[in-house]
Design a protein that fits this description.
- This protein is α+β, with helices and mostly antiparallel strands and 210 residues long.
- It has five helices and nine strands; from the N terminus they run αααααβββββββββ.
- The strands form two sheets. Strands 1-2-3-9-4-7 form a six-stranded antiparallel beta sheet, covered by helices on one side. The chain has a three-stranded antiparallel beta sheet with strand order 6-5-8, with no helix packed on it.
- α2 crosses α3.
- The longest helix has 11 residues.
- The protein is globular, with a radius of gyration of 16 Å.
């Protein structure tokens, strides 16, 4: 099983230092073996073990896949304290976080069936994983151009374009402009045995782009 490349060398962002023990805790709480959890996320057991021991830093796509598998949110994986339930998310209170080169801001409330994020994807971000999992995803391009791979089809989305698709379709997101792309991103939080349909190695052939 092939694995995504390591993120660039350098000190890990402070919020990522809490991820490793949290990943191990959530996997055990979900009563999943390392092998089963890795298969559901689309990683090798060795790669997931390195994430759980802090030897590798997860990218944002990887964090999203792990959050879905464990039925939680990226914010919870990062150990962020959930605010009191509030239907309004104020821009002044949205602190950016970074994972694998992707920067994101929480744009929705905690404890919901969907997670909403504002995401900036650099042109050469690490961890362009192909993901396959139950649920739905919706995205809206704010700035830049986005290359969206859905199965065998590659779509280039411009600002104002949106996409809404079944997450069981193998998919990959990548910036298609030199300045990167910024988008609104909403996905469902589901835990299901169907997640075992993840592609081995978590990657599409190179001809699909990424």
């Amino acid at each position: 099983m092939s694995e995504p490349p390591d993120p660039p060398a350098g000190p890990a962002p402070e919020e990522l230092t809490t991820v490793a023990p949290r990943l191990r805790e959530l996997r055990r709480r979900s009563r999943l073996t390392l092998e089963t959890a890795a298969r559901r996320v689309g990683l090798s057991p060795a790669h997931l073990s390195r994430l759980e021991t802090g030897q590798r830093q997860p990218s944002l796509p990887m964090l999203l896949a792990l959050a879905r598998t464990y039925g939680t949110t990226v914010s919870d994986l990062l150990g962020e304290t959930a605010p009191e339930p509030d239907p309004v998310v104020r821009a002044a209170r949205a602190e950016p976080s970074e994972a694998g080169g992707w920067t994101y801001w929480t744009a929705g409330g905690a404890g919901r069936a969907m997670q909403a994020l504002r995401v900036h994807v650099p042109q050469r971000a690490q961890g362009d994983l192909v993901r396959v999992h139950p649920g739905e995803e919706w995205l809206y391009v704010l700035t830049g151009r986005l290359r969206l791979t859905l199965g065998d089809a590659v779509h280039v989305l411009e600002p104002g374009d949106a996409a809404h698709f079944d997450s069981l379709t193998p998919h990959r997101l990548a910036a298609a402009s030199s300045s990167g792309t910024e988008l609104l991103f909403v996905h469902t939080l589901l835990q299901s045995g169907a997640a075992e349909l993840c592609l081995g190695g978590g990657r599409l052939p190179d001809r699909h782009g990424g």
